[in-house]
Amino acid sequence: GGEKARWTDTAEGLAKAFTNLTGDMLIAAGIIAYGGAFTAGYRARVVDSFVELCSHARLPHTPRYSLGATLGEPVKVREWLIAGLPNDAFSIENGIIIANARRWPLAIDPQGQANKWIRAMEAAHKLVVLKPSTDPSYLRTLQASLPVGRPVLLEGLGESL
């Protein structure tokens, strides 16, 4: 009886996840589009407001929403952690946002955690690291790298380029 009960529970969980899929993906899209720049506390309040909007619209969603549970791929997240991403929910959410966003990220990174993680993740893809403040030819290198798909990390950016 134990195996049947396990499969029954799994089937029920999948049915519930399928029912909540539209609302959960709508919330995920909102977080990816707008939430990357927010602090952990403010992002949590924004997510709560997205959940509330889904509830008011009677759109099925997971009541205790988690971006990590919705879009986090355990194997990929494990790779990120090995590459130096801090093991906390906010950092993992940031990784999910970066992995799913259509635009490049701008990381305000005083502790160098994002820098270390990006360097480790993109090393195999021939990451180009540029420092615009000290490299007068950075723009030429940037223009040569992007069309061929090489990842570029700009370090030490000021308020303008």
UniProtKB/TrEMBL annotation:
GO: which molecular function terms? dynein intermediate chain binding; dynein light intermediate chain binding
The UniProt transmembrane annotation reads: none
Q: Which GO terms describe its cellular component?
A: dynein complex
Pfam families in UniProt:
AAA_9
Annotated signal peptide: none
Ranges of residues in domain Dynein heavy chain ATP-binding dynein motor region: 78-161
GO biological process, alphabetically ordered: microtubule-based movement
**Organism (species):** Chlamydomonas leiostraca
Q: What is this protein called?
A: Dynein heavy chain ATP-binding dynein motor region domain-containing protein
Coiled-coil regions listed in the entry: none
